[in-house]
Every structure is written in structure tokens, then in C-alpha cells.
């Protein structure tokens, strides 16, 4: 690993330098409650909280609450509070799939559109605490649909447009959604995505939805169901542009976002209002430090936590201008990002390492043909960034003149936890550097020993922070089991990590059965259950293999029923099975038919061996004496090469 150090460029302007960061850290350590309450005061509260955190990670008194006596409305914090001073400032810049297909929405327009959605929800009987699903492209109406949930106190659950109808149905059922907001079609990289048709299929599988709101994106033909489906364009003008905000308790749920874990179905990660809002607003300010002059572009989709916290809530609470990009990095060409940065005057650009790796292989010319002079800060998120990609980002995209923030966090953490504060911390390519103020990481070994100094271990957090998830929707026990039992009294992140002699953190990736494909979390168990749904499959095991662009890819071992034999046609069918159950993002890179899987005598699959075989190793499998049938290993090696 590279240990190069890049000092903060001398002319980088920031409100937080090393001294200010020291002061924040000191305050967080010595007057913890005062420190957190001060962060909460960034928000407009209907009733200001007097209490900061009230939490325990221990089984006996387990629970996580923040600012619990406070009351607020998050849409008010994103919109109403800006109207007097920034009503005409651009809140969102929509940049469509085709370059220059751009729309600018001011804070006032976004406020009015949000109120219209809120009024429609109320007309349709959506009440405080009800669930609304959002399955949309990256259009400003999607942000308005989210903010309108916050306005009426409904809980949104945004589902990424790349998930299949079956996945949508599973989520509708799990959270018992009442209403869905969707669009006719999505449009990405010149291809259409049949969003409304997918919703229809999902509802056919799970008929509990009362109303479907369809926003026009492409104008493509869609079927409308009488009495259930509503075209946004038919009702929009009839809806009032004012809507009374519900006053919410700080601990009322704001949203559910489904994410994959090591076992079972995706979990509904629940975030609540006051703590999440405080954390999204605070981290946006500390890490990106956007001022009124900035144009902030986070390329994530709102179907992921990054889109929630840093396309919608963080920027809007801070009164910034946020770009909503409805395209892909390589369309119409590999210079799309930089052409768009120049055209829109983007000052802060935040993307995923996988996107950088896919652009890097196109060479420097697509970057250098654009000026990029407006950019003053770059960021990455979603997976470890390899030092080569970091250096390319630094040298070619940033011309060696702008800091890079490598931000480590998770759906569960609500916002960034480990990242450089860009004016205050020197950078090391590949390291997310140090925890933000108030964040207390620990490295722990398999024997539950907390490790000190320069070392490697499993990454845990010993203290809660306001943006921490509060529960798994409908299954509080699973929440506790998943995150707090591996290391009692600590939150376990699922990531492995190294800490160097300077106290810098280097996240090495998941240590559980979660695969990070192009920054998207995929649970091995989900893919396996999709594969075994095929009638010819007896058993399946899925592991991660390294991939130059995606970071990791999915390698699947499939055992067929006795007497069946594998073929390319069957591989296609299995691939289709995964697309149908989950979505294209989970499709295996490779499927190997295996007569049997390496199991211990107690029946546990030894994934360590499967990983090595998938990576092309032919020996050095370590101790295989615990296998029920050690000859399986040779069969696997032979099968990989065939
Ligand atoms: C990984 C995305 C290394 C990590 C915000 C984590 C990272 C998982 C980084 C969460 C980073 C995210 N460096 N690894 N800067 N950021 N990860 O829930 O394994 O989609 O546990 O949240 O992504 O993915 P999630």
C-alpha cells in the first residue's frame, strides 16, 4: 500500500483548519452533550432539545435516542427556513441523461412542489407514520416526493430504479407501503427503464398499494389503472403550493432504506428525524464546507444512502446548490463528468471509486480536454479506493491542486464517520484518514480484545452518534443481533480496517458475507437464494472475487440436482433468475457448476476455499482436514479451469 502523504494544498480555503479541528475534537471529548447539542442547533427546531444522546449498546438497557425531547420538521429545515434569504437561489440542478438537458429549481420552486406532493399525499389519506415508497429516476420531483413525506410525517422508503419488480414487492410488503411515487420510465445511458411497468408487476405480486403517482419523465406509453394510478401532470396544477408541516418528535422515523446484510432478506434500516438531520447537516458542513458560491455534485442515486444524505438532505439543510444527475459516467462519452462540471460550474465533486476506475482506463485525454477550473474539492465514497485510482483522481482530475476527501460510512451510519476534514488533515492515498469529531472507532480482534496503536482488526464504534440507525424495520431483535452481539457493548460495522502509526484508518473491506460490487452492497445469501429458486439447482454458494473496475464481482458455485448437467444456456437462465429476484446489479460475473461444495462435517460451507479457487489458486488451501470430503477441492480446481 502506498504511504505517500499529500499535504493540504496551501491555497485551499476552509473554515476548519488544524486548530479548529483540534478544538472540535477537544470539545467532543470533554463536553460531549454540549458538543452534540451545539451541532443540533444548526437546525430550526419547533421545540429545541435539551438532551443530547441517551443510548446504550448493552443488551440489558439497549436503545439509541438522540435529542429526544426536541421537535422539528425536516422539510422546514430544508426549505421554509431558506425562503426569506435564498428563495430565488437554485436548490437543485437537474442534469438529464443527455448533456445539457438541464433544469434549475430554486428553493421556492422546490418548496412549492414539495407542498403540492404533501397535499396529494394527504388527499390520498397518507398520515403521519404511514409508509410511502419512491421508485424514481434522479429528477427533482423525486426530491420533492421525499421532502413531502417529511412534511406530512410519512416515512419514505426509496428503492433504487435498478431493483427488479420482485425486490420492489418484497419491500412494499415488508414496510406495508400505502402509496408509491414513480415515473413513466427512467432513462440512463440512452436506455429506457420501465419503472411504471415494474411497479405494476410488483403490485401484482403484492396487492396492498392504494395509489400510484406517475411523474412524466420520458413521456413513454404506460398503462394506467383506473382508480389507483394518478398522473402527476393531471393533478399538479390543482394542488395548493402551501402545506402545513407536521411537528415531529426527534425520534419519529424519517425513512426506511433497505440494505443487504450477511444473512437473509435485505433489512429495512430505520433513521429518525432529529439525529439523522443533525448528522447529515453537520457532516455536509465539516467535510464539504460548501458556501453560497458552491455548486455541489454528488453522483449517487437517491436510491442509496449517499443520495439521501448528500444529494438531498445535507445540501438542502445547508442551503447549498445540489446537482441531481440522471445519467451515467460514460454516456455519451467518458468525458461526461468533466464536460458537465465545466458547463455547470461544479465546485465540489463526489463520486465512487468504481466510476473513477472505469474512466481511468480511457486515459487522461477525456479529462484534460475540459478545464475543470471550477472544482475546488473532490470526494469518494462507497468502497475502498486503491491508491492508483486516488493518485489519478488527484493528479489528472484535480491537477494536483485540490484536496480529496475519501469518506467512509454506511447506510447504518446515516452520514460520514471517517474522512479528512479537508483543510485540516493531510491525505494518504487509500486512507479515509481520521474519525470526525465525536466518532470513536475501535479495532477489535477475534478474541474481543481491543487493539491499540498501529494494527489491523475489525472496525467497531464504542459510542453512538446522532446519525446512527435506530432499528431494523419491524425487527428490533435483528438489529441488536446483527450489530451488537459480535462484540458485546460495541457497534460492529462489518468492515476490516488497519490503523497506521499516524492514527490513520485504512478500511480494507467487508469481513462478513457482503459483497461490494461497484459500491453496491449485495448479500451472498440473497444471491444464493435467487439461484436455488431455479428448479434444477440443488445448492449454491457465492463469493467475491477482485475486479479491476467493480472492486469486487460475484462468483457463484452452483450444484445441480443429481443427473443434471451444466450448460451455457443454464448459466443464462441462472443469471436471469438473479436479475428477476434482485436486479441486474447482483448478476454473477461467473457461474461455476460444482458437483459438490466443500463442507465441514457439520455441514458448514468453507467459503475460504471457494474464494481461493475463484481467484484461480490451485494450492495452498490451508487445513482441509476438517472437510467431510477433501477430494471436493480438486474437483473445484478442475471445474474452474474447464
Ligand atoms: C464500504 C455507502 C472503504 C464499506 C455510504 C462499508 C467504504 C460499505 C468506504 C457501506 C470508503 C463505504 N472506503 N470502504 N470510503 N465507504 N465503504 O451501506 O465496506 O452502501 O461497510 O453505504 O461500503 O455501504 P453502504
UniProtKB/TrEMBL annotation:
Residues 526-604 form the AMP-binding enzyme C-terminal domain. Acetylated. Deacetylation by the SIR2-homolog deacetylase activates the enzyme. Keywords: Acetylation, ATP-binding, Ligase, Magnesium, Metal-binding, Nucleotide-binding. The keyword Nucleotide-binding applies. HAMAP family: Ac_CoA_synth. Belongs to the ATP-dependent AMP-binding enzyme family. This is Acetyl-coenzyme A synthetase. It comes from Sphingomonas ginkgonis.
